[in-house]
Amino acid sequence: MIIFRKIKWKNFLSTGNHFTEIQLDNASNTLVVGSNGAGKSTVLDALCFVLFGKPFRSVNKPQLMNSINNKDCVVEIEFNVGNKSFRIVRGIKPNLFEIYQDGTLLNQDAASRDYQEHLEKFILKLNYKSFTQIVILGSASFTPFMQLSAADRRAIIEELLDIQIFSAMNNIIKEKLTINKDSIATKKHEIDLAQQKYDLQKLHTDEVDQNNAEKAIQYDEAIQLTYGEIQEIHANTATTTSKIEESLQLVINKSQVETKLKTITKIESQIEANLSKYRKDISFFQQNDNCPTCRQEIALGFKETEIANNNLKVTECEHGLRELEKKLTEEQNKLNIISEIQKEIQKLQILVATNNTAVIEKQKYIKTVEKQLEELNSNKESTAKEQQHLQELLDCLLKQQEDLRTLIEEKTYYDAASGLLKDTGIKTKIVKQYLPIINKLVNKYLASFDFFVNFNLDESFRETIKSRHRDEFTYASFSEGEKQKIDLALLFSWRAVAKLKNSANTNLLILDEVFDSSLDANGTEYLMMILHMLEGANVFVISHKGDVLQDKFRNLIRFEKVKNFSRIVK
Asked: Which of 177, 234, 264, 443 to pair with 549, CA 20 to 30 A apart?
């Protein structure tokens, strides 16, 4: 049970910079009076603002602050829940929201919304709508239970009956179902990928086995073919070597030919020198009659003899040159033939060298292929790894399929739980158990107001109201005074149920201008009788009828407005 102790505020609405404080547990009933605008209803806004961050009336948050001081707006409230004491402080300019438990500030690391959620769920165990249905009945910005939507009616009754946990569980189940649905879709996609990987690996493994067999045949064929090529090259090399040996026999006398050529050339040079000398002598004797040295006359007979001898020598030299030319040509031809043979030998030697290189390369190729064939024949470890990888992929596929079955099984459980936690499920069964009690309480309080109708709420929270003559009515068909009696009967019924469940039970009840509206004199008397019968309640009644109601209350609080600031009259 929540026991509200006191509330105080400053710079809130029309209140000045000094705290206005009200003791909430001082008297069983308190009348709050004052002229219009004096600040009577400020307590409603302060109470809702400090607990839920928004006022009871339709006032924007910036307008809650006193427009004259325009800063340091603070509301504080103190209350007990069981053996724990709490103090809530909330303010504007600066923004302030603090929760103290037994004098210690609770952790504020979380966001403000989470802090508020902690206050409502774990401390008050009331939200704004439930609070304003159980604690406050006001004439301003108040929506009676009967004018709420079916969803809001359900939310209030679920909180009263402390079964909102099922709604929270249903939301969790919905989230889990969404996650489960996404997980199933993801898992199916993963299974498709795993199946593709397995199929590809199996195809690869089969291809490896098949390719290994084919490669072994290809390697054998390649080795045999290369051995045949080597034999052909060896045969060709042998033939070429024989040709080289034969050709070498032909060029063995090359040095002799070259020597002869040199000798012939030397002799030819000597003969040409002699020939030149003989011809020069002939020319000398033909052109000169006297000796150019001694100036003596050369005898004609001597001249003729010398010319004849020299002509004979010239003839001999010319004949010798011709013979030498023939010899020179003959030996040069021999040398040219030898050079051609040598070139052919070089070609053949290059061919032999090329063949030898080819044999070496082919022998290397054979060794490489033999090594590959050996690895292929003995590489069982590699094949085992491929098979192991294939088995791992199969195990992964089977594991994911098992995970999918688990997810589908979880979905079955979630669907079943969701069916139980829906509004038509277990909550409806619980509500059905309490509806007769709620209807009985409502009709009891309506009878206390001398309003004899049969009021009934069904599990969808739709009302059926019948008169004594069994005529059916709806809430909207009654007068404002009768509607107010129904609203009050529901308010007291909710408090009785809350006390029964101890889920939203509180000592505080505030009625704002209820006595000033549509209640007649009898209705006022009946309401006062009900208020006096409330046990453990601190009732605050805000009214303009202070002169009429004052003697009916044990405590009186009077508000007044001085220089535009509201205050309590001492």
From this structure: 443
User: 172 falls in which pLDDT band (50, 70, 90)?
Assistant: confident
pLDDT, tens only, 44-63: 999 999 999 999 888 888 88
Structure tokens at 15: 């209140």
Distance of CA 289 to the CA centre of its chain: 129
Please give the residue range of the domain that contains residue 40: 2-162+424-568
For 276-301, the pLDDT digits (tens) are 988 898 888 888 888 777 778 878 88
Percent of the chain with pLDDT over 70: 93
On whether both 381 and 455 belong to a single domain, the answer is no
Q: Contact, 335 vs 262, CB < 8 A?
A: no
Residue 217 contacts by C-beta under 8 Å, 6 or more apart in sequence?
none
Statement to judge: residues 215 and 304 lie in one domain = yes
CA distance 170 to 419: 9
Q: What is the rounded CA–CA span in Å between residue 523 and residue 449?
A: 6
| The predicted structure's pLDDT at residue 423 | 67
Of 132, 159, 137, nearest to 48 by C-alpha is 132
Distance CA(167)–CA(461), nearest Å, equals 17
According to DSSP, the β-strands at 104-105 and 96-101 are antiparallel
| Spatial separation of the C-alpha atoms in residues 131 and 125, rounded to whole Å | 10
Token pair 């037994």 is found at 102
Within-domain flag for 187 = no
Quickly state the pLDDT bin for 476 (edges 50, 70, 90): confident
